[in-house]
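Postdoc handover notes: sequence design on the structure in folder B. Input tokens:
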């Protein structure tokens, strides 16, 4: 330590303070351990062993300010908002001479659940030319089951996670004459409008979102293991189940239902970024055909160019296909200025990419430390990371160029240190290599620092998998993904899934729910303009 402190620069003084704080922390820990050891030798109790929380993501909640307390619970306020369907007057037994002072209200909520069978007697007329005219059924009547029953089945199965056998038993118990096959048909048949709306929700979200977060989980389909991918943000959620979790698969999902392949400037830039050779890129970019409607047409094009015969690394067919898919995503106006936030899974590393801080810290948290020195180094580094994380949260509220520069330098000081814990030092080097993706928030403070939203969204799919297993048909898979996504989107937009289904199934006297894709588009545009 230099004796002449006045001769040190500002940076050297800061480094000296950091060094002294570390030494003070070490001395405090040593003194505490000696006290515990002294107490143990005297037969006294030492300090209680308080273990850190098992889920480091709880630190994220602790770093956020608590919302203000709302007004206390008041049954009267809620009762005033309820619609009274029936009113009964209860008479009291009173002695002679009593005076009537009005009524005291007591509201009881109940549920009417019983079969309601309707026989439609449709008029039949025979026209002079011999043709027969039959009066049409009312709107919303499809088959021999009414819209209310269909709504109940959809809500119970998709939002309530009730299995088909239990749903059949439940309906039969209340007096509905129905079979398992009929329930299955209600769940997977005739839902093209819902599937289209779920697809359009994804398109609206990708076209207007400032950011999206993504995640995936295992899924079973037709007896085989697959992957369900979640895409969403604060305004929408979409699920798609496929057979793999590759980057090709993710790019196909980002096309949002389109099936074309496009070679444009974005596609060429993608191929160059993935180290595809210049001559191969030139063959694709200079060819007259740059748009292909189907996968078959694209593969034939690659064969004609001779790319399928090349046996080099990286695989030119794979990289070229990824580039053409990314070109299609850009051509349809998706993710033009959006940030993709992920947990560092390789398949999500496309476009403007940012990483989740919770997953980054979790790598440090999960390291096995076998010595006291290693445990102390791990604990100290976790403290530094979480303090840095809290400052990033504060920066999102009041960003500034000066603060941005300070946080970049602080990141370097944290992740360039050498602890002597070999595994931890290797991990620090790995995290330091991800600096650009971890600090995207400095340039785009509107993005989240984690993927907790995606993990919360995809939990309903995990629950469905645990309860119901997998799907056996493509319509069943598509309907499950679509309705789970629509239910999540309704919740994010502040609508009841029950009311949403009532509107789409044309149930009378139902609160109208507008188009979800249009609402998602408006939310995205309003967020971007704010």
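Designed sequence:
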């Amino acid at each position: 330590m230099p004796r002449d402190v006045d001769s040190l620069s500002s940076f050297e003084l800061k480094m000296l303070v950091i060094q002294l704080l570390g030494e003070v922390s070490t001395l405090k820990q040593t003194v505490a351990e000696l006290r515990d050891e002294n107490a143990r030798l005297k037969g006294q109790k030492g300090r209680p062993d308080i273990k850190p929380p098992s889920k480091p993501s709880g630190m994220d909640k602790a770093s956020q300010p608590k919302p203000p307390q709302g007004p206390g619970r008041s049954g009267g306020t809620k009762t005033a908002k309820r619609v009274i369907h029936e009113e009964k007057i209860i008479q009291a037994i009173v002695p002679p001479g009593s005076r009537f002072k009005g009524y005291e209200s007591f509201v009881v909520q109940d549920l009417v659940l019983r079969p309601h069978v309707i026989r439609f007697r449709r008029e039949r007329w025979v026209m002079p030319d011999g043709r027969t005219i039959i009066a049409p059924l009312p709107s919303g009547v499809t088959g021999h089951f009414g819209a209310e029953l269909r709504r109940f089945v959809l809500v119970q199965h998709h939002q309530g996670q009730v299995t088909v056998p239990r749903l059949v038993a439940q309906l039969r118990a209340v007096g509905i004459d129905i079979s398992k096959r009929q329930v299955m048909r209600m769940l997977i048949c005739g839902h093209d409008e819902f599937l289209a709306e779920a697809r359009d929700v994804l398109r609206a979200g990708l076209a207007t979102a400032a950011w999206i977060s993504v995640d995936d989980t295992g899924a079973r389909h037709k007896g085989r293991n697959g992957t369900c991918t979640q895409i969403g943000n604060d305004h929408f959620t979409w699920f798609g189940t496929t057979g793999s979790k590759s980057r090709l698969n993710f790019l196909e999902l980002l096309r949002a239902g389109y099936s074309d392949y496009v070679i444009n400037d974005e596609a060429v830039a993608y191929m160059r970024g993935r180290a595809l050779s210049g001559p191969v890129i030139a063959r694709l970019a200079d060819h007259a055909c740059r748009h292909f409607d189907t996968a078959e047409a694209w593969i034939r094009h690659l064969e004609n160019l001779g790319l399928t015969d090349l046996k080099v690394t990286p695989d030119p067919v794979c990289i070229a296909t990824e580039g053409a898919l990314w070109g299609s995503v850009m051509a349809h106006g998706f993710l033009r200025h959006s940030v993709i936030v992920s947990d560092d899974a390789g398949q999500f590393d496309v476009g403007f990419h940012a990483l989740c801080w919770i997953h980054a810290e979790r790598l440090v948290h999960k390291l096995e430390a076998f010595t006291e020195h290693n445990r102390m180094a791990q604990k100290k580094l976790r403290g530094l990371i979480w303090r840095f994380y809290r400052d990033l949260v504060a920066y999102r509220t009041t960003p500034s160029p000066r603060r941005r520069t300070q946080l970049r330098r602080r990141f370097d000081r944290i992740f360039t240190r050498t602890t002597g814990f070999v595994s931890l030092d290797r991990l620090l080097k790995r995290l330091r290599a991800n600096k650009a993706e971890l600090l995207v928030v400095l340039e785009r403070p509107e993005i989240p620092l984690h993927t907790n939203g995606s993990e919360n969204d995809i939990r309903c799919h995990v629950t469905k998998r645990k309860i119901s297993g997998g799907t056996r048909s493509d319509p069943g898979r598509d309907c499950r993904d679509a309705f789970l996504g629509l239910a999540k989107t309704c919740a994010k937009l502040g609508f009841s899934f029950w009311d949403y289904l009532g509107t789409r199934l044309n149930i009378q006297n139902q609160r109208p729910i507008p188009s979800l894709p249009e609402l998602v588009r408006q939310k995205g545009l309003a967020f971007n303009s704010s």
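Context for whoever picks this up: The chain has 22 helices and nine strands. Don't rerun without checking with the PI first.
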